[in-house]
């Protein structure tokens, strides 16, 4: 890797490490209506969860992320379900602080390695992790976490890849989040249990705040 790319990777990794200190629980958010975005973000922040992932799974996602960035300054907004270099450009244009992907194609890794926005590529195997590391990404999303081998898989990957750090997502919930976070190579976990679609549709902001508070308390304990 050329020196300029190494410097850029180092800068991205530092920015990402600073952001992840606001974790370690990242709500994975799918918004169907833009009008729900700001009250949802405020409910999560009130519950102690500032690091958010707005997934690009709906037509409302981009406008929702923009509204949160504009109106909820305490929220740290990341764009998830980044599948292509164009999605990565979109995340940066929206003003997202970071971006995440459930996987990583060679084109996406190459584009992300040339970008300044902190990026968390998705991996499920040792080979995929090696590709991410080769492009300068030391923190990756382990997805789908439970289906891809769960906690034993991350313990196994710690041996040959001691420098790698993980944000597992997929099957993480209130019951097992703390177990994942006890692993030395896990810096954060992602999940939708604190902001389920049914609660968002019902605009149950108080319930979402309560779930967020319980999640924060559970890991402190």
TrEMBL record:
Its EC number is 4.1.2.14. GO terms for molecular function: 2-dehydro-3-deoxy-phosphogluconate aldolase activity. Keywords: Carbohydrate metabolism, Lyase, Schiff base. It is an enzyme of class 4 (lyase). InterPro entries: Aldlse_KDPG_KHG, Aldolase_TIM, KDPG/KHG_AS_1, KDPG/KHG_AS_2. Pathway: Carbohydrate acid metabolism; 2-dehydro-3-deoxy-D-gluconate degradation; D-glyceraldehyde 3-phosphate and pyruvate from 2-dehydro-3-deoxy-D-gluconate: step 2/2. Coiled coil: none annotated. It catalyses: 2-dehydro-3-deoxy-6-phospho-D-gluconate = D-glyceraldehyde 3-phosphate + pyruvate. It holds the Pfam family Aldolase. It comes from the Bacteria. Homotrimer. Belongs to the KHG/KDPG aldolase family. This is 2-dehydro-3-deoxy-phosphogluconate aldolase. It comes from Microvirga tunisiensis. The lineage of its organism: Bacteria, Pseudomonadati, Pseudomonadota, Alphaproteobacteria, Hyphomicrobiales.
């Amino acid at each position: 890797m050329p020196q300029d790319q190494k410097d850029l990777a180092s800068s991205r990794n530092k920015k990402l490490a600073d952001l992840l200190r606001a974790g370690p629980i990242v709500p994975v958010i799918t918004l169907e209506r833009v009008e729900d975005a700001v009250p949802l973000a405020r409910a999560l922040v009130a519950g102690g969860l500032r690091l958010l992932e707005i997934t690009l799974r709906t037509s409302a996602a981009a406008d929702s992320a923009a509204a949160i960035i504009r109106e909820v300054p305490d929220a740290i907004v990341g764009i998830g379900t980044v599948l292509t270099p164009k999605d990565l450009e979109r995340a940066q244009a929206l003003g997202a602080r970071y971006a995440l992907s459930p996987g990583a194609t060679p084109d996406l890794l190459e584009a992300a390695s040339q970008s300044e926005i902190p990026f968390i590529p998705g991996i499920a195997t040792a080979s995929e992790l090696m590709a991410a590391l080769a492009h300068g990404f030391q923190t990756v999303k382990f997805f789908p976490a439970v289906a891809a081998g769960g906690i034993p898989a991350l313990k196994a990957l710690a041996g040959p890849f001691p420098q790698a750090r993980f944000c597992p997502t997929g099957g993480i919930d209130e019951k097992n989040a703390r177990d994942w976070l006890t692993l030395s190579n896990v810096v954060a976990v992602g999940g939708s249990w604190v902001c389920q679609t049914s609660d968002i549709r019902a605009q149950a902001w108080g319930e979402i705040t309560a779930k967020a508070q319980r999640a924060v308390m559970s890991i402190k304990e």
